[in-house]
Amino acid sequence: MARWFTGGGCLLAVLALLSAAFWAGASAALDPRDVQAGQALFARNCAVCHGESGRGDGTSAAGFATKPADLADGRLMNDLPDDFLRNIIENGGPAEGLAPTMPPFRALLSAMQVRQVIAYVRSLARPPFRAEEHRSVATAPHAPVQPIFFNHIVHASSFQLACQYCHAQARRGTAAGLPSVERCMGCHKIIGAQDNPEIAKIHEYARRGEPIPWVRVFKVPEFTYFPHKPHVRAGVVCQTCHGPIERMRVVGAETGRTLRNDLMNLVGLRTSPPPLSMGWCVDCHRDQNRRGAQAPLDCVTCHH
Ligand code: HEC
Ligand code: HEC
Ligand code: HEC
Ligand code: HEC
Ligand code: HEC
Ligand code: HEC
After folding, report:
1. What is the CA(216)–ligand 4 centre distance, in A?
2. Which of 102, 114, 123, 190 to mutate to test the pocket of ligand 1 (most atoms within 8 A of CB)?
3. Which pTM does this prediction carry?
4. How distant is the alpha carbon of residue 247 from its chain centre?
């Protein structure tokens, strides 16, 4: 048995070298040696809960209210960044807002072993994981501490909920709007209710009849008027202005006064304006109008 494995390892290694030579630079693809090492580590550390083939049917899984997800379901797994998986495996479920029944493996697995386990998990995915489409976690500046650890990576990347499913006012009104507690409860009355403390908080707000006091991130000053509706209707996608929200574990942004940029402009350095500054709005409006849009450039439309 052991001999067979060694032989297999050699063959895989040769194949890996050949394919590496052929694809010159395709280092992002899964390395079969990592996949094989990862498989053994997975069987030893993870299979008891996740099952031998990662389907969430391990012997210990039956006892959990929140079952381990099917790690072989490519529709759920392929859009999750490596760094998200690494964080969960090293630091446990709560590092990404998931249930603490997913334990941390920091003390048991080296960084390389974690990488190998991830390679194995990736190799299970159907539809297959495509390394060239992999995107990393976006670390947003000035992310505040929110009352509940709500993770856009889980909702918008893994479960692929549409932005406007939750921000439902965006195409109808001035504000995009945040989902009500009832909307969260629509799913979380059941999902995660029993063993995820972050989700238990939703139940607390619902019981007290209080809205969740989310900390606001994107904000223009009071004297400025920004309506979502004309932008969404003109086909400007959310990410143009907000960045890759679906890859943020906590939403954050550089907002407020932009003194450094203002000073650079003052001394004659033409810098590109940062998001939410007036120069940013006006730059895009000029650009859009050259393509036939009718975005306002007069003061009173944006200032009352
Ligand atoms: C004691 C049981 C247990 C063990 C052992 C365990 N897990 Fe988990 N794991 C869970 C549970 C339960 C969840 C679901 C948590 C949730 O969704 O809130 C989970 C979730 C995950 C997720 C997140 C999946 C997703 O859909 O976002 C990954 C990735 C993961 N586990 C990988 C591993 C790996 C790799 C190992 C071994 C190194 C491992 N787990 C060992 C119980 C376990
Ligand atoms: C359409 C269904 C749906 C809605 C609506 C929804 N969620 Fe979730 N949520 C999920 C699913 C599915 C998971 C993954 C469950 C798991 O693996 O533990 C999840 C996971 C979570 C988690 C744990 C992982 C994370 O994101 O940190 C939290 C906390 C959470 N949701 C909060 C919320 C809040 C707050 C709202 C309302 C603003 C909300 N959810 C609305 C389906 C939903
Ligand atoms: C399941 C519901 C849900 C989905 C789906 C969702 N969001 Fe959110 N979003 C929230 C909640 C709750 C908050 C408040 C907490 C926070 O800032 O993370 C939020 C915050 C935001 C913010 C910051 C608001 C502020 O305070 O300035 C932006 C921008 C945003 N979402 C954009 C998006 C985009 C773009 C998508 C699609 C890629 C999306 N959201 C998908 C629930 C959702
Ligand atoms: C043209 C740029 C632009 C686009 C496109 C855009 N936003 Fe915004 N968004 C902003 C600005 C600017 C603010 C701050 C507005 C304010 O303070 O009044 C904001 C605020 C928000 C907020 C917090 C306050 C609120 O309005 O509820 C959310 C949530 C949000 N946007 C979500 C979205 C989503 C989801 C989409 C896509 C459907 C989207 N935005 C598209 C520029 C944009
Ligand atoms: C990425 C490009 C882009 C950015 C950035 C942008 N806009 Fe716009 N804006 C547009 C487009 C496109 C339209 C719609 C033009 C049309 O309908 O033909 C528009 C329309 C508007 C309108 C007209 C509303 C109406 O009812 O006619 C206002 C007001 C406005 N924008 C304010 C702002 C403000 C304030 C900012 C900065 C905080 C901003 N925009 C940033 C592209 C942008
Ligand atoms: C497309 C929308 C838009 C138009 C058109 C526009 N502004 Fe603004 N303006 C803004 C936004 C957004 C801010 C807030 C930016 C910030 O705080 O960095 C702002 C800020 C300002 C400020 C305050 C600057 C500061 O540092 O506090 C002044 C003064 C101002 N605008 C004057 C004008 C005048 C005068 C015009 C017409 C020539 C004009 N604006 C046209 C969007 C616009």
Report:
1. 11
2. 102
3. 0.92
4. 3
